[in-house]
Write a structure and sequence with these properties.
Four copies of one chain form a homotetramer. Chain A is mostly helical. Chain A contains eight helices and no strands. The interface between C and D is large, with 36 and 38 residues.
């Protein structure tokens, strides 16, 4: 199979999902109170938009780095990638749900945050699965040395651990759980372990 | 014509269709009962989402394998591919319909499942048409030997036969028909006849 | 500028527009009468869907053939292409409008069909503009001989002439105007003047 | 990282955002008055559609020219590009808001125009950030000479300055502010400083 088509299809899904996120920010329009009040009431939507946008953006950057170093695409990788996209595609809908419920408190807020974290956890676990798949001999263009492998494994599983923590915390405090979820893309933006990156000469492709 | 643009356009349509599927999972929001109850009532949407997502995913994998081995793109292939996409594009809407009606029983449930199976049947028949088109001399980069051709023909038409069976069964039991439709992607995930795949050296493209 | 990015961006817009078309086919859901009646009442949506789908599909095929033979992409071509996409993007919305109004008769049906034909006319005129742009020396990889040029000019302007005719006819009979609009993609499917096609060796790209 | 994937993902986002713009033009349908009146009442939507369409179109052309000349893609560029897309994705929603409120006058019209200009300003500032990033040694395939650099800097920051002006003017006259926003793509269509363009031989890629 062709790595290019796997990347193009995935990029298409990432691009559509990230663009649909903004639809949750639509204002109700005239007859629903002053626009400034509508904007102010909408603040959880803006926070959730920022978190979801950068999380999808970072998973795209990481997907890009990991798949760009893959030597062969087989059906197992195609399937793992589909499972990853299954969760990516859920994010716009779960973002809308969390924005509607997180400020209401009670069980609904807890359920909404757990749903939201669960979509990200599913995304993180499938990404981890893809990473583990790449470690078998011959699957990377430039195999990772043992040391880099450990660093990369830590790097790729950290997100999933934080999402699990967010699910546990959501039962006590949904806003704190949301803050943990929001911290994940910030971690990946500043974390710069170079492991798992494609070789420098791959960029000409 | 360029095979690349056929693939890119098709990948775009597959990516948008697969992402739109999740819009059917949107929660009604506050004022429509506890979120957990909304989720529980929504279970047919989740089942239909999983079936449609993996069916589109698998047809994408198969499309990829088949078109990746094509040597020339003519107007007939472009047109057959358009017919395939005509049905792919119907899937999000028919998924929403089946999720709304399948649990209601009666004639509406039957009609909804028949509509859903018919979209997949149309997709399967057009895919079969593309496959038959590839069998003429000179249309594949690596022609299939007679034996592989028979295996591939069985492989590519099995889905259509199962969708026809689902339509027949829908008149008796819509849920069983839905289970048959859901079994098709599972069959293609585990079925591994290598026929119709592009040659190994095509992956560098 | 890169021809590839012009093609990819255009393919993205074509793919999203063609997929959004199907959203007009969504059923209202339980509580709006038997599903079979909803489907029957929805027939103008299905007819409009087929017309719009194949029209966008054919313009994609023609775009593909024309741009694939272009040697240089300058700002004028990028701008002409944007104008083309401006009209492509209007098609899903105008398709929904024509489906809602064409069977009602009266002035509303006329206005809806004129709007629909006008979007296609705008698309046809911008496509014609792109075609005329390609005729200047040095803009095609394989310049068209004078004879092929005349055939191609006839070919690319026929659509616009038919859309103009549809606008005139709409004032008398909206359904006949719709039939003319629907005849355009059928014409392009069966018309096979090879003019304007990229050279055979361009398909490897 | 691969420049190609950065371009493909960005093109996907631009394509989806530009196509979603047209959804704001949907007619309410039968029962909401004559279609001609609905169209006439909808004129701010058509104006806002044209402005947003050509603004996204021009930013796509400029993005294309700037990124096409980039020699290496690092995480900083990927992140700056994500911030650019964060604002691009907001445009369909802010276009809908401005169309609904600009003719109502009062504070709501001011807020709607400021929101709209702010999305474009965010887009302009991130684009300027990407431009400044490219100026460091070794980041462009063909470095800009000092003179071209000044011209390009003026060129890429002019949009942001006009959007800032539009925000200031919106407090006095929302329609004039809208006219300034609409003038920006017109400026970029006719402005032809060739600075920042990729070398001519990059177009074969």
């Amino acid at each position: 199979m062709s790595r290019t088509r796997l990347e193009e299809f995935s990029d298409g899904v990432f691009a559509v999902a990230i663009t649909l996120l903004a639809l949750n920010l639509a204002m109700a329009g005239p007859g629903h109170g002053p626009l400034l009040h509508q904007l102010a009431d909408h603040w959880p939507s803006f926070v959730a938009y920022l978190i979801s946008f950068f999380t999808i953006g970072i998973i795209w950057v990481n997907h890009h780095a990991l798949i760009g170093n893959v030597a062969v695409v087989d059906r197992t990788l195609a399937l793992l990638n589909l499972v990853l996209l299954l969760f990516v595609v859920l994010i716009p809908v779960d973002t809308a749900t969390v924005a509607k419920y997180v400020t209401l408190g009670g069980q609904d807020a807890r359920v909404a945050v757990v749903l939201y974290a669960a979509a990200f956890l599913g995304m993180g676990l499938s990404f981890g699965g893809i990473f583990e798949w790449t470690l078998r001999t011959g699957r990377l263009q430039q195999p990772l040395p043992e040391r880099a492998r450990r660093a990369a494994r830590l790097r790729f599983w950290t997100g999933s651990i934080l999402y699990l923590a967010a699910i546990a915390v959501a039962f006590v405090s949904p806003p704190v759980a949301l803050a943990i979820i929001g911290a994940v893309p910030v971690y990946y933006i500043f974390e710069r372990t170079p492991a798992g990156s494609p070789p420098a000469d791959a960029r000409q492709q």
